[in-house]
User: Which sequence fits this backbone?
């Protein structure tokens, strides 16, 4: 009996290219420190003007709104002046002397530098702190003189506002390291250190700024998501309206193609002893009509929903506007109809689109201006059909409140007008109402006949 022992291969040491998770975490942290505070630290990054499209600023007069653009620069300048006064007045006699004025200027310089070189201002503030203490020659607080305290705290806040939370964390860590080293090795004869107040105060200030950053970033993401959602909703609305229009046109065209096929099949029987050429022509017309109807149902039928049922009644035309206006009047909208020009029969698509536009415009009037009056104008002109629906403002006070819509109405109108190569304008009127004006081009009868003859000759 033999015993076989399987030995596990020795674990690869970390030196052969693989690193421990702790090492990789430390390396990543140090690379973040190098990127945030060392790489191109003194790069020129001027503070941009403040946006003036906020809810409060945009209500200001034009002159104040223009001045509000530079409000952050003015605040930084005021803080620099405060650091100058704190450094000067706390470093000498009342009225100051040359060393005190020098300390004040050194304290104000890093604050002003945040306007153009934010990361460099942090390093400058750290460098100014021991210089100010040395000029004070062992008197006062350690390691931050009053002016240097105000200066460094202001620089931390401004730089954190202009960068990101990770940079704020690294600045606080380096400030803590500097405070520890200065207390241990450079404290000298100082009996009091303000490192603790600096750490606590700066930690609280940087925490507030970091929370603001997180909230601001979240708001931007929500705004971006809302924009994408609104765009997708608009696209979905557009597709729904196109689907509705395609369904209606399918019913209209299918009806007329069916009539053509039936008439082409029955026409030879209306003539006694028709010539063979005529019978073949009608047979060809019927075959083409049936083929076109089959293709139409196959192509346009895919836009129907599974639960969609074709209407039993024919699609409405402008002749049915009377019934529509009676229904609207019964709903409480005072509406009058004015027709100009010679009334004539128009292509089915134009009739249907004009009817739907009037229907949707009156529905919007009922929804958004309850209690108002409306006017429908139908103009038959030589080159097409003009439709204008205008309603007045809702009366005040009104027992019925306006109700928001789904936003499909105007989109559907524009789709119908675009399909017919027409023109449309929609917008509020001067008196507070709303107006929809549409022109649908319709070629003259002889132009259509010429076009049909030309298509027949080409065929």
Assistant:
């Amino acid at each position: 009996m033999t015993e076989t022992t399987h030995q596990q291969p020795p674990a690869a040491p970390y030196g052969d290219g693989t690193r421990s998770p702790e090492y990789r975490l430390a390396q990543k942290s140090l690379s973040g420190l190098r990127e945030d505070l060392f790489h191109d630290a003194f790069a020129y990054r001027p503070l941009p003007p403040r946006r003036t499209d906020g809810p409060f600023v945009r209500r200001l007069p034009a002159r104040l709104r223009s001045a509000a653009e530079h409000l952050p620069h003015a605040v930084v300048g005021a803080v620099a002046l405060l650091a100058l006064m704190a450094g000067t007045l706390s470093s000498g006699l009342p009225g100051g002397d040359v060393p005190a004025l020098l300390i004040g200027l050194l304290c104000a310089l890093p604050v002003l530098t945040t306007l153009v070189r934010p990361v460099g201002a942090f390093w400058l503030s750290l460098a100014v702190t021991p210089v100010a203490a040395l000029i004070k020659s062992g008197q006062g607080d350690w390691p931050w003189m009053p002016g240097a305290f105000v200066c460094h705290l202001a620089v931390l806040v401004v730089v954190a506002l202009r960068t990101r939370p990770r940079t704020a964390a690294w600045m606080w860590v380096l400030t803590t390291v500097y405070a520890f080293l200065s207390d241990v090795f450079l404290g000298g004869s100082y009996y009091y250190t303000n490192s603790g107040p600096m750490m606590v105060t700066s930690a609280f200030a940087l925490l507030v700024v970091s929370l603001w950053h997180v909230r601001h970033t979240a708001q931007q993401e929500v705004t971006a998501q809302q924009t994408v959602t609104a765009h997708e909703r608009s696209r979905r609305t557009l597709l729904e309206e196109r689907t509705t229009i395609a369904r209606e046109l399918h019913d209209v065209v299918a009806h007329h193609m069916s009539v053509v096929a039936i008439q082409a099949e029955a026409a030879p029987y209306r003539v006694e002893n028709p010539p063979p050429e005529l019978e073949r022509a009608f047979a060809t017309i019927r075959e083409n009509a049936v083929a076109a109807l089959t293709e139409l149902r196959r192509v346009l039928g895919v836009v129907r929903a599974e639960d969609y049922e074709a209407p039993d009644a024919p699609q409405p035309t402008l002749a049915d506007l009377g019934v529509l206006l009676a229904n609207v009047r019964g709903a409480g909208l005072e509406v009058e109809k004015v027709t100009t020009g010679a009334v004539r029969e128009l292509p089915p698509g134009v009739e249907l689109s004009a009817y739907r536009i009037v229907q949707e415009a009156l529905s919007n009037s009922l929804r958004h201006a309850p209690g108002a009056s409306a006017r429908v104008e139908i103009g038959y002109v030589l080159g097409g059909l003009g439709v204008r629906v205008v309603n007045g403002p809702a009366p005040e006070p009104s027992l019925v409140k306006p109700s928001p819509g789904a936003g499909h109405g105007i989109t559907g109108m524009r789709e119908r007008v675009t399909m017919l190569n027409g023109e449309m304008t929609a917008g509020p009127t001067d008196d507070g109402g709303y107006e929809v004006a549409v022109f649908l081009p319709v070629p003259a009868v002889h132009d259509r006949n010429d076009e049909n003859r030309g298509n027949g000759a080409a065929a």
Observations:
- Confidence is low (pLDDT under 50) at residues 1-6, 446-459.
